[in-house]
């Protein structure tokens, strides 16, 4: 095992490589953001060090031996709570899918681009060496609790006239971002998936996917915060729709569907009347069911009339709905859900949808 000199950045990274040069170019790039230890695939420890920030895997995915060794090492729970970045020989779909099957939480492809790699590391890998699994669990629970507190005010108190303020959301956003950054999207979904109230669970799913997508894209922190707020509150209007309709086990009648479709406008009106909410949040609340081809609701917007933050939220909203268990159906598999969204063609921003693929298919 070889280790670099300790840099200013306070991360510990484990680089597992089967390359003849020990992935020296990649190791050199990683040293800019952390203390790098390089091992062969055979030397990946069964239990990671408590202060390890994350694992970077650079192997030949066409080598059955290397693939099997990595699969065996990552099969259990030991590495599940930390980020796992896999390096691909190219950006082909097959390699990406194989990496996710092995346990990747993110992928990069050759030729190596230092800026892109460092952006991914900074966004997802904890930068505190003392961060351990216990801390991750506590941080995850704090994030879920903070989100749940906002949803309680949104779904239970707002319809009774108790105001939901922008400050309520601000108080939760940092805990939510930290929870997903320092644990994983998979852990977030597992934790919130136990919630018995469908509307709560859906908003928590959408928030998790939105945050993970933003971090995957390398968004600036202030943009991540804006997206977190918008995703958390996107369905606020459902607070004004009878629960019997939202949880109905059978098909909705035309009249019932028309009632449910009022939720974007009702949510927008409630927050606008309350005051203090930024325009992009109101935009998402009102327009997250609009489609690029003009077939959505409530305003039938199309193409350039639909903002980027709405396009992104629409994608994670639909995906979350498909992979959740609903009163009237079992969840679709992640691969089936993604294929269904690809089949929606020009209704969605397909380039943005493909950018979402690693987050979507790596979350199960």
Automatic annotation (TrEMBL):
Gene3D superfamilies noted in UniProt: Hypothetical protein af1432 (1.10.3210.10)
UniProt-listed InterPro entries: CheY-like_superfamily, HD/PDEase_dom, HD_GYP_dom, HDIG_dom, Sig_transdc_resp-reg_receiver
PROSITE patterns listed in its UniProt record: HD_GYP, RESPONSE_REGULATORY
Keyword Transmembrane attached: no
Keyword annotations: Phosphoprotein
Domain HD-GYP: 177-364
Keyword Phosphoprotein: yes
BP GO terms, sorted: phosphorelay signal transduction system
Residue positions where 4-aspartylphosphate is found in the record: 58
UniProt superkingdom: Bacteria
Molecular function as annotated in GO: phosphoric diester hydrolase activity
Domain Response regulatory: 12-125
Pfam (any one): HD_5
Listed SMART domains: HDc
UniProt cross-references to NCBIfam families, sorted A to Z: HDIG (TIGR00277)
Xref: PANTHER family: CYCLIC DI-GMP PHOSPHODIESTERASE PA4108 (PTHR43155:SF2), CYCLIC DI-GMP PHOSPHODIESTERASE PA4108-RELATED (PTHR43155)
Annotated protein name in UniProt: HD domain-containing protein
Lineage: Bacteria, Pseudomonadati, Pseudomonadota, Alphaproteobacteria, Hyphomicrobiales
């Amino acid at each position: 095992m070889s280790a670099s000199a300790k840099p200013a950045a306070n991360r510990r990274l484990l680089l597992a490589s089967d390359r003849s040069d020990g992935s020296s170019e990649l190791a050199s790039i990683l040293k800019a953001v952390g203390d790098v230890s390089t091992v062969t695939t055979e030397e990946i420890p069964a239990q990671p060090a408590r202060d390890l920030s994350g694992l970077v895997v650079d192997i030949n995915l066409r080598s059955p031996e290397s693939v099997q060794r990595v699969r065996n090492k990552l099969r259990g729970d030991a590495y599940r709570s930390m980020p796992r970045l896999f390096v691909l020989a190219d950006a082909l779909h097959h390699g990406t899918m194989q990496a996710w099957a092995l346990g990747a939480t993110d992928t990069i492809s050759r030729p190596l681009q230092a800026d892109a790699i460092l952006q991914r590391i900074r966004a997802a890998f904890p930068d505190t060496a003392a961060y351990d699994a216990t801390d991750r669990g506590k941080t995850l629970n704090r994030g879920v609790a903070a989100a749940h507190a906002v949803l309680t005010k949104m779904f239970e108190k707002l319809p009774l006239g108790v105001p939901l303020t922008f400050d309520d959301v601000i108080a939760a956003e940092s805990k939510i971002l930290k929870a997903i950054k320092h644990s994983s999207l998979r852990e977030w979904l597992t934790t919130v998936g136990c919630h018995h109230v469908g509307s709560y669970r859906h908003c928590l799913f959408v928030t998790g996917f939105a945050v993970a997508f933003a971090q995957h894209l390398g968004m600036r922190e202030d943009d991540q915060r804006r997206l977190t707020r918008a995703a958390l509150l996107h369905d606020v209007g459902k607070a004004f729709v009878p629960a019997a309709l939202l949880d109905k086990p059978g098909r909705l009648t035309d009249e019932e569907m028309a009632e449910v479709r009022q939720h974007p406008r009702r949510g927008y009106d409630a927050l606008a009347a309350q005051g203090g909410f930024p325009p992009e949040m109101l935009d998402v609340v009102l327009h997250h069911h609009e489609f690029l081809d003009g077939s959505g609701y409530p305003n039938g917007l199309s193409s350039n009339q639909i903002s980027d933050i709405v396009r992104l939220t629409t994608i994670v909203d639909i995906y979350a709905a498909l992979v959740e268990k609903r009163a009237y159906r079992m969840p679709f598999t992640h691969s089936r859900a993604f294929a269904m969204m690809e089949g929606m063609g020009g209704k969605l921003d397909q380039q943005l949808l493909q950018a979402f693929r690693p987050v979507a298919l790596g979350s199960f």
